Amino acid sequence: MPKQRGKQTSALTSPVTIASSACVAGSKEGRGPLRSNIDSIYEDSMLGLKSWEQAESAMQRDALNLALSKGNIPESALRFVLAGDLLGQCIGSAFSARECDTPFIGLFGACSTITEALGLGALLIDGGFADRLAAITSSHFCGAERQFRMPLEYGGQRPTTAQWTVTGAGAAVLEKAGLRNSAGNPRISHVTFGKVVDMGIKDVSFMGASMAPAAFSTLSAHFEDCGLSPEDYDLIVTGDLGSAGSEILRELFQKNGVTLGERYKDCGMMIFDPHDTDVGAGGSGCGCSAVTLCGHILNGMREKKWRRVLFCGTGALFSPMSAQQGESIPSICHAVRIIGGE
Amino acid sequence: MPKQRGKQTSALTSPVTIASSACVAGSKEGRGPLRSNIDSIYEDSMLGLKSWEQAESAMQRDALNLALSKGNIPESALRFVLAGDLLGQCIGSAFSARECDTPFIGLFGACSTITEALGLGALLIDGGFADRLAAITSSHFCGAERQFRMPLEYGGQRPTTAQWTVTGAGAAVLEKAGLRNSAGNPRISHVTFGKVVDMGIKDVSFMGASMAPAAFSTLSAHFEDCGLSPEDYDLIVTGDLGSAGSEILRELFQKNGVTLGERYKDCGMMIFDPHDTDVGAGGSGCGCSAVTLCGHILNGMREKKWRRVLFCGTGALFSPMSAQQGESIPSICHAVRIIGGE
């Protein structure tokens, strides 16, 4: 079978095993519906450190260390670490990687970064360039507010379409198939990298509207390239379109005669208590999809709850400066097909 | 031969061709010694647009379009665009990629990003996931000053170890070997991804000192993994250590009994007029190594001036916020081995 499927999809020769995964999060996430799948919940959003940025780096390290120890994998067995985050110049990842004696590949895909890391990582393993590597991303509510919005002390009001940046990190260790007994572990079989889509939306309090067309573009390409339809999946998950954005995605498909139905979920709508009115349209941030995937979804796949999952990270590629300059929001979505273990 | 060579190096099954490359730059760079290898020189640092950030995105597009037209390659023949820049949230790349109908993979490696893009791109092609793709990076002096340092109007003094961010962009199109007649074009045969190294340097006006140990780490790993020494290269080039940083790199090797000698150069010391006292220790920024490589070095290889080149992008992975918080500067270096065409 050709590895280049259609215009955008890479088909792996052998599915790459997700050997282990772990996630960590803050107390608000720890009170949400996914709490039983979060490996470590911090009551102190500073993690006892001096800044939110240091805390975010520490969350990345904790998520990686937990994933390694859960999988009984020494850090020295990793060939690469692929990581990224939302902070300017990706300092959450770079400062975490200082403590890691492994070649580091820095990525930026905004909130889609965990999927970019898993996708690239899977291709590097299938290409023969690594037997084992880690994908990590993170975000921190307080660091993101300081950077993208207002000082926390200001107590600004938010429109209902605004989303709440998740404080958390997720890490997954990918492994070459057959390296050891990995029955039961989920596996990545296809990767669809997305194009940058910009429909002219400028409202940074409604990122779901800017990201939904990017998700539509990548999911449509995935279905076409692979000859699949939504019915071929038990679960289709977008990263963080939130309630308003995921409604737009459903409508875009409906207009094309495709019903996503009950199998479609959004991490932004899964991670927080639905009665928590703080969070507006739902969660966002690199940590939102990473925590949901590396905990709830991958654990559910290990428990055979779902067998065929399409995981679609979504990212709004703007910056505080581009927003101040009145630019619209370019967006992206990358998708990985994850299949249940044997 | 194994594709995983030693601890950090990837050896390609078939060298990947650099089918075409182009670079664009500002007027200061256009007055420097590399001017004859710059495809387009802008007299207006705004490129007639409304912001330096828009100008930087336009430079990325121009560099890509020039590389495509020089290689007689339609954009539709690209499978991926790999790109990154120094601006927060990589907006230089994301806004450029809006106009591109090709899947986009966003990277962040600070000034090492062009090497990260070439390295990952080469592995994706050798792994069978693309026949052709583009690697692009950029930086803009005015945008970088606004973001990392002082408003230009302030006219701040700079220490002699400070570097001057290059206004420019470079793009290279990588192609699977044998896809068409590519005799004479340089080829990538090995990629060494680096670890994050932080020796505790906090002076953002002396980034060369923080990056030199990262360059030493990656070059040492490359030589060990491949069983090579500096004598096996006609040219060894670091990205932008500048005069002070490259002197440190020479000393680090000398202490280990290895002489880099005359074959060792640094892009930061090549790009500006050596009598230009503005530029301190030399050029920096993602554009520095990208312009030098995609013009001067690759053209020189096509003219058989050098046959074996080790190109080592170097990056300081700090942010304005991490510097304000008093953090030290994590640094990285990625290296690609480039060999002359047949």
Structure notes:
- The structure is a homodimer of 342-residue chains.
- With 342 residues, chain A is α/β, with parallel strands linked by helices.
- The first copy, chain A, has one domain: Peroxisomal Thiolase, Chain A, domain 1, CATH 3.40.47.
- Helix content of chain A is 33%, strand content 24%.
- Chain A has helices spanning 27-30, 52-70, 91-97, 113-126, 141-148, 207-226, 242-255, 267-270, 286-302, 320-324; strands at 4-5, 9-26, 40-42, 80-85, 104-106, 132-139, 164-165, 168-175, 187-192, 235-238, 264-266, 283-284, 308-316, 331-339.
- In chain A, helix 3 links the parallel strand 4 and strand 5.
- In chain A, helix 2 packs across helix 3 and helix 6 (207-226) packs across helix 7 (242-255).
- The radius of gyration of chain A is 18 Å and the shape is globular.
- The relative contact order of chain A is 0.20.
- The interface between A and B is large, with 59 and 59 residues.
What amount of the residues of chain A lies in strands? 15-25%
The CATH architecture category of chain A equals 3-Layer(aba) Sandwich
CATH superfamily of chain A: Stage V sporulation protein AD
N-to-C span of chain A? 21 Å
The low-pLDDT segments of chain A are none
Describe the largest sheet of chain A.
12 strands, mixed
Average pLDDT of chain A, rounded to a whole number, is 96
Radius of gyration of CA atoms of chain A, rounded to a whole number: 18 Å
Largest interface: A-B, 59 and 59 residues
Tally of separate domains of chain A? 1
CATH hierarchy, class of chain A: Alpha Beta
- How many β-strand stretches of chain A? 14
Give the oligomer, counting copies of the same chain as homo and different chains as hetero: homodimer
Structural class by helix and strand composition of chain A: alpha/beta
**Portion of residues within helices of chain A:** 25-40%
Overall 3D form of chain A: globular
CATH third-level topology of chain A: Peroxisomal Thiolase, Chain A, domain 1
* Strand and helix order of chain A: EEHEHEHEHEHEEEHEHEHEHEHE
Number of helices of chain A: 10
